[in-house]
Write a structure and sequence with these properties.
Chain A: Its cofactor is [2Fe-2S] cluster. The complex is a heterodimer of chains A (216) and B (436). By secondary structure, chain A is α+β, with helices and mostly antiparallel strands. In chain A, 42% of the residues lie in helices and 9% in strands. Chain B contains 17 helices and eight strands. Classes of the chains: A alpha+beta (216), B alpha/beta (436). At the A-B interface, helix 2, helix 5, helix 7 and helix 8 of A face helix 5, helix 7, strand 3, helix 10 and strand 5 of B.
Chain lengths: 216, 436
Amino acid sequence: MSLDEKTWAELREIADRYPEKRSGLLPMLHLVQSVEGRVTPEGIEACAEVLGISAAEVNGVATFYTMYKRKPVGDYHVGVCTNTLCAVMGGDLIFERLKEHLDVGNDETTADGSITLEHVECNAACDYAPVMMVNWEFMDNQTPESAVQVVDDLRAGREVHSTRGPRLCTWREAERVLAGFPDDRADEGPAAGPASLAGLAIAREQGWTAPKGESK
Amino acid sequence: MTDTLTPVLTDNWDADRAWTLASYEERGGYAALDKAFAMTPDDVITAVKDSGLRGRGGAGFPTGMKWGFIPQDNPRPKYLVVNADESEPGTCKDIPLMMASPHTLVEGVVVSSYAIRANTAFIYVRGEVLHVVRRLQRAVQEAYLAGHLGKNIHGSGYDLDLVVHAGAGAYICGEETALLEGLEGRRGQPRLRPPFPAVAGLYASPTVINNVESIASVPSIITNGAAWFAGMGTEKSNGFGIFSLSGHVTNPGQYEAPLGITLRQLLELAGGVREGHELKFWTPGGSSTPLLTPEHLDVPLDFESVGAAGSMLGTRALQIFDETTCVVRAVLRWTEFYKHESCGKCTPCREGTWWLAQTLARLERGQGDEGDLDLLLDQCDNILGRAFCALGDGATSPISSSIQYFRDEYLAHLTHGGCPFDPAASTAFAPAGASA
C-alpha cells in the first residue's frame, strides 16, 4: 500500500515545523502509524525521502521508541501499568485478568482486531494507581472488574470516556494528534482529577496560601 | 510563618476551565511578560538566580546559573527546551500541571526564552499522554492568537516561536542530552559531556533544558519577586514544590508546599497510611532515589537533608509502601524497568542491568544463596559511577538501599523457598484488614 498525496504533504509539513527537518522524524512516525496502523516499510521510505536520510537511519529510530509498532495495532491500545507502584496496587492482577479475558499475551491483538494489550511503564499518574491507559488516555483507579468492563464496552462499540473526561478515540486518531494535528477536543473533561486537587482542597479549607508577593 | 501548604502552581487547578486562556488571564496570567520585558534579559537571569530556584526535574541544579552559562557572544541561535518527558517511576506532577494549566508553562517559556535570548523554544512532552498533548497544543495556539507568542510579543520587539513536540516512549529521553537526540530525530542516547548543552546543545547551538515545574515557577518569581520565592523553603533549598504522594496512603495526590516539609507532615495531611496498615518503606523522589524507612519520617524534604539521610530529593515523588508490600518484588520490578529502558550505549548499564535483574529474579524465587546479596552489591559497585549517564546509577539505588534496610527479607525468600507475601494483600482493592 502506498501513501496518499495528503499524507506526503503532511509529512513535509511536519518537517517544516523545525529549524532542521530531521527533528520532525518522531512526529512523522506518529503520522505514519495514524495512516498505516503501524510503522510500515512504505512509511519508513517516505520519512527517509522527505528528510533526505537513509531508510536504515529511520528504521534505527523507529526501533528505539516503544510507541512505534511493527505489528498492526488494534482500534484500542490498552496499556496496563505494571511498574512497581501500580503493580503492587493491583496492576499485575489487572494485567493477568485482561490477558485471560481477551485470550492474548503481552503485545498481542485480539482476533477481531479491536484490542491490543500491552503492559506499560510508569505513566505519571501514580496518585491514581492502579492505572490503565487506553490509546494513551488515563483510566484511573482500576480494578480487574472495571478493566474488563472497559474492554468489553470498547469491543461492543459503546462510547467510553477516560476517567478524566475525554471520549476515547481510536488509536489511529490518537496517533494523528501526537503527530501535531489537533483534533479540537482539548476542552473535553475537567482541569484536574480528584487526586490532583487533594492538597489544594486542604489549603482552601484551612485558608492556607503562599505569602503575598512584592507587587500584591 | 509560612503556611503548611502554599499553592502557587496548583492554585488555579480548581478554577472553571483552568486550561483555557480566558481563565488564566482572568487570574492575572501573562502579566509577568510585561514585567519581564521592562527588565533587561540579564536582570531576569539575576532575579531567577537570586530566587534560589533549583531544577525541579530531580538534579536540583540552580536554574539561574544554568541560564548564565549560555554564551551570549556565540553567534548561533539560542534554544530553550522544556523537558516534559515525565517518566521517572512515581513522578506525577508535571503531567497534571500541563493538563490543568498549560498556560502557566507557556508563560514561563516566554519569560525564560527572553532571558536567555532564544527565539525558538520546544516543549518535549512524552507521547503517552494524549489529553495533555491536546491541552498544550491548544494553549500554544491560543497564546499565538493573543499575541503572547509570535512576533513582537506585547509590543516588546521580542519574537518567540514555540513548538510542542511529542516523544514516542523512552524513559531515557528524560536525560537532557538524550532528549536533544530525540528532538533531533535520532535514537535517544545520551551525549558525551562536555560540551554541555549550554555551549553545544540542540543543533550544536547554546541550549537551556529545564523541567516543566522549573519553567512554570518562573512567572511567579518575576511577578512576586526573588525575595518572595527565597523566603519560602529552607536555607539552601528555596521556594515551593509539588510533592506527589502515591501508593498506600489514604488520600494520594499533589501537595504543593515549601521545600523542607516532612513526610510525617505530608502523611498527616493525606490522612495517613491506609487504614489498618503501617509505613514500611518509601521513595523520596522516584525509583532512582534510595529507599527510606519510617526512621526518616522527620527528615526535611529539601536537597541537603534528604542527601544527608543517604538518598536524594529527586522529583519529590513520594511512593508509600506499607507492610503488605514485598520489598524484593518491588525492587525486582524497578530493576526490570531499568533493564528495559537502558539505551544500550554503555556497557556497565546495558550489561549490568541484565545481570542485576537475573540475580534478583533468582533471589525472588527463593533460589540462589546469601552470597547473591554480595554479588548484587558488587554488580551495583560496577555500575554506580561507571555508567554514561544517571540511568545506570539510578538502577542501583533501590537495590543497595533495600539490602541495607531489608537484608532479612531477602534471606526470608531463601528460607521460605519463594516470596512469603500475598500479592493480593497489597492491592488497592484488597479487603480492609488483609495482611501479608
